[in-house]
Specification:
The complex is a heterodimer of chains A (about 375) and B (about 80). The mean pLDDT of chain A is about 95. Chain A is globular. In chain A, α3 links the parallel β5 and β6. Chain A has eight helices and 18 strands. With about 375 residues, chain A is α/β, with parallel strands linked by helices. In chain A, α5 runs parallel beside α6. With about 80 residues, chain B is mainly α. Chain B has one domain: Non-ribosomal Peptide Synthetase Peptidyl Carrier Protein, Chain A, CATH 1.10.1200.10. Chain B is about 55% helix and about 0% strand. Chain B has four helices and no strands. The chains are: A alpha/beta (about 375), B mainly alpha (about 80). The interface between A and B is medium-sized, with 20 and 16 residues.
């Protein structure tokens, strides 16, 4: 039973960085892999994704870096006080070393810094938060940053093709030690039998990159090469609408609260059809379920903090606010967290230009 | 337990532009003009809501008629 509870740790602040460049799904270009099966308007209506932020230059770490600089400033923290960073992403800067190591240096943090990368997608923020919370809750580390997001693809063929469902975002969540802070409670689950529901088939050690990795093949009607992530959309949809509501209910039952009393429910921004269904099954009123996918698309692991920044800034800072957040997807993996914020700092959305890539940690 | 007739009616409800009279138990639904992967998601959502059954993509792909899909759902209940 993967339930966890951490005391004496609070979420002090949240920020998100996105590329400045906007791609519209109503006016797709040749670079947008929009199916010809349906009209752009129907795609927007069903998925709930009207536009998203894209860049061929900015990596996840570039976006997380910009968001983190902003949040540290807004919190008034000293960089020398930050004891750890967790970087959660499936689009690291390099296959090795860990991107968290690069970010320690780029952010100018102490060398006495705990850093680790976590390879998870849509459930990643909740997992990353649990690890950060566990490090801080013990009192061992006093200030930890959980950086989470996904952006620029890890491979590129001669043709530029972007999936119209997904947008780039890099987020940061700041945790600090505070005695008596309300407990942060988690539920987690995994079903690795669905490992190929969302998968990049080649490029890992199981199927290493070869020149044939760039050959095209047909996957459920889409022309893809073997280094691109592919998704069994119907399987993932079915998984999401059944698993996410169950996880939310289990969390409430285990920790003895009525989930309907919570102020806000922030779900991974999969697509509107899936998220509507999840909210409906949990009988949640619309105003308690913010969505950011209309303007930012499915921003993968970072979608929960992305939604908090885009939709809840200005609504939650000045009073105690309770949240349930649930991430679910690639793995298959899921996690749900319940927490309360009090005077949380939510930074303005950071828009990052293509020139703001890392210029130092390049080879 | 819903009958085949009830399932056919629920199935037809997922379409916007296709008249319900065009859809029967024997309809090969993937041949309908309006059929798309988006409609397939609506069907999966309906199976979850009305039957508490989690359909997979393969279940939808392997079925050709509406009745085939009804049988798959019954088998999973």
């Amino acid at each position: 039973m993967a339930f966890l509870e951490f005391k004496n740790v609070r979420i002090a602040g949240i920020a998100a960085g996105v590329p400045k460049n906007i791609a519209s799904n109503l006016y797709p270009t040749e670079e947008d892999a929009v199916s010809k099966d349906y009209a752009p308007e129907d795609f927007v209506k069903t998925t709930g994704v009207m536009e998203r932020r894209v860049s061929y230059e900015l990596t996840t770490s570039d976006l997380c870096f910009a968001a983190t600089e902003k949040l540290i400033l807004d919190l008034g923290w000293e960089k020398s006080d930050i004891d750890g960073i967790i970087f959660v992403s499936q689009t690291p800067d390099y296959i090795l070393p860990a991107t968290a190591c690069i970010l320690q240096d780029r952010l100018g943090l102490s060398k006495e810094c705990y850093t680790a990368d976590i390879s998870l997608g849509c459930s990643g923020w909740v997992y990353g938060l649990s690890i950060g919370a566990s490090l801080v809750s013990s009192g061992g580390l006093k200030k930890v940053l959980v950086l989470c997001g996904d952006a620029k693809a890890r491979s590129r063929n001669d043709v530029r093709r972007r999936n119209p469902l997904f947008g780039s975002a890099g987020t940061v969540t700041a945790l600090d030690y505070l005695e008596g802070a309300p407990a942060i409670q988690f539920h987690f689950g995994t079903d690795g039998s669905g490992f190929d529901a969302i998968i990049t088939p080649e490029g890992g050690a199981r199927n290493p990159v070869t020149k044939d990795s760039f050959e095209y093949y047909d996957f459920e009607g889409s022309r893809m090469y073997h280094l691109q992530a592919r998704m069994k959309g119907m399987d993932v949809f079915s998984f999401g609408i059944t698993t996410a509501p169950k996880s939310v209910k289990k969390l409430g039952e285990h920790f003895g609260f009525n989930y309907l009393d919570v102020d806000y429910f922030v779900f991974h921004q999969a697509n509107m059809k899936m998220n509507d269904m999840i909210a409906k099954k949990l009988k949640l009123p619309e105003e308690k379920v913010p969505n950011s996918m209309y303007h930012f698309g499915n921003t993968n692991g970072g979608s929960i903090p992305m939604t908090i920044v885009a939709e809840l800034k200005g609504k939650v800072e000045n009073k105690e606010t309770s949240f349930i957040c649930c991430g679910f997807g690639v793995g298959l993996s899921w996690g749900t967290v319940a927490f309360k914020t009090n005077n949380v700092v939510i930074s303005d959305l950071v828009e990052v230009s293509d020139e703001e890539t890392d210029k130092v940690h390049v080879v | 337990m819903k009958t085949l007739e009830e399932f056919v009616a629920l199935f037809a409800e997922q379409f916007d532009d296709t008249d319900a009279s065009e859809i029967t138990a024997a309809t090969e639904f993937k041949d309908l003009d309006e059929w798309s992967s988006l409609i397939a998601l609506s069907i999966i959502a309906m199976a979850d809501e009305e039957f508490d059954v989690a359909l997979k993509g393969a279940d939808v792909r392997d079925a050709s008629t509406v009745e085939d899909l009804y049988k798959v759902i019954c088998g999973k209940m």
